[in-house]
Amino acid sequence: AADGLGPAQGPMPSAEIPWAIRAKGLALRAGERKWGELRHRAQDLRPEDAGPLALYLRFAAQAYENYCQRQSVLEERASAFDALPLAVARLDERGRVVEANKSFRGLTKLSPEQARAKDLERVLAERVGLVLGPEWRRFLDDPEQEDLHRIVCFLDKAGGGQEHCAYLSACREGGEEQARILFLLENLRELSRMEVQTLRRRDFLERLVGAMRDLVFTVDETGTITFSSLPGEEGRGESLFARFTPENTYGGPWGPELLEQPGPPVEVFRAEKGVRKPFELVFSRLGTTGGPGFETLVVARDLSTVRRLEKELKLRAIYDGLTGLFNHAQFRLVLERELSRSRRTGRPMGLIFFDLDGFKAINDTKGHQAGDAILRLVGEILNRELRQGMDFPCRYGGDEFAVVVTETGERDLEAIGERLRQAIAAQFSGKVTISAGLTALNAEDTADSLLNRADRAAYSAKGAGGDTVVWAK
């Protein structure tokens, strides 16, 4: 143009352009197609530059044609992506929306800017009422899983609570440097009401089985697992009888013959990462009980919690929860047992019984927490000062303690009692001491008479001012 280059609206024939130079121009041509024209004054171009300029214009025209073709393809792809009747979105590797088409935006009522970088799972749950479930999270967390396909049913929040079923598909695309996920959601409009109800029941049962704490399997007549509620149906195709090992207490058959007539539950275990995990297997035949091709439902109940509770109850039945010493009930059993053993072997035994001096005053003035701390320390002293496996310290009740001493004559029994008195007095700087009674087993003694005699001796020690050890009379 006369005043330089300027914009033009749409394609314009060369003859209609308001050229400032009337001379014939050089065409910008690629193949048979002319893309433009260059005009110049004769004095502006040296003769030797005419050939290179023509070659350059040919390359420029070809490059421009290639650009237009690529741009056209991209625009067509974008138009097709946006015009798809399916809800489609491209996601990053963590499930956040990178790009969404018109159907997806219409389903979720989000603009392109609002949809971008949103978490797909949260968007569908909040905007549509569609819960993707644990399968979706497992798909995101496992880069080795290339795709996910399933049918889901939901009540469309945006559509007035109308019931829908949809086909869900997700596929990984691209390399590791730019991992992408293509997500597709197709509304299944042609399903009958009965088919919708069937799909809803299937979806409900899948969620129900997935939420169960127990594991659920089905096995064929050979014991091969045909269904597993474990993530990714782990164990499918594996033998149930190879996956679990029966406890030593089980003496029945362990193989396909067990499935012929399922009996009571079987306690088994499975080693997982070096840890022995206990289960209880319950077998139930599915369908007919005769003929080949039958299947069996197997529910594996995790007994880890039960075993832990059993262990805790057993410990509580034996030990005092505060001091860690034997409790009152176990003291009676230990006393009866050692008395019987002493009579059988002829070896001596004795009993030390004591309570704490000064404990009540501290407990009343400083509170029960201070009192509990004293009792715990006394338990530690007894465990430290006594012989393991030969002396049995017990918390009799409150601030009263008893020690069943075996394989010990009267002189050593008195030395043990005195050692305990000194250790406790030193621990509490004399503010807490003990009044202890000692007694040795006599030929005519019972457990009650031995205990009563030691108790009376401790009462005498208390009457004598405490912080002393007294022999029973």
Overall helicity: 25-40%
Largest sheet: 6 strands, antiparallel
Please list the strands of the largest sheet in the order they lie side by side.
Answer: 9-8-13-12-11-10
Q: Ranges with pLDDT <50 over ≥5 residues?
A: none
- What percent strand? 25-35%
Overall mean pLDDT stands at: 83
Number of strands: 18
What is the tally of helical segments?
A: 14
Please tell me what the overall shape is. Answer: elongated
* Secondary-structure-derived class: alpha+beta
Kindly, what is the distance between the CA atoms of the first and last residues, rounded to a whole number of angstroms? 133 Å
Radius of gyration: 44 Å
What's this, in brief?
The chain is of the alpha+beta class and 473 residues long. The chain has 14 helices and 18 strands.
What does this entry look like structurally?
The chain is of the alpha+beta class and 473 residues long. The chain has 14 helices and 18 strands.
Key phrases:
473 residues; alpha+beta; six-stranded antiparallel β-sheet; five-stranded antiparallel β-sheet; 39% helix; 26% strand; elongated
Question: How are the secondary structure elements laid out?
Answer:
Elements: E1 26-30, E2 33-38, H1 50-83, E3 87-92, E4 97-100, H2 102-108, H3 112-115, H4 120-128, H5 134-141, E5 147-156, E6 162-173, E7 180-187, H6 193-211, E8 215-219, E9 225-228, H7 240-243, E10 245-246, H8 257-260, E11 266-272, E12 275-286, E13 295-302, H9 304-318, H10 328-345, E14 349-357, H11 359-366, H12 368-385, E15 391-397, E16 400-406, H13 410-427, E17 433-440, H14 447-463, E18 468-471
Parallel strand pairs: 17-18
Antiparallel strand pairs: 1-2, 3-4, 3-7, 5-6, 6-7, 8-9, 8-13, 10-11, 11-12, 12-13, 14-16, 14-17, 15-16
Helix pairs in contact: 11-12, 12-13
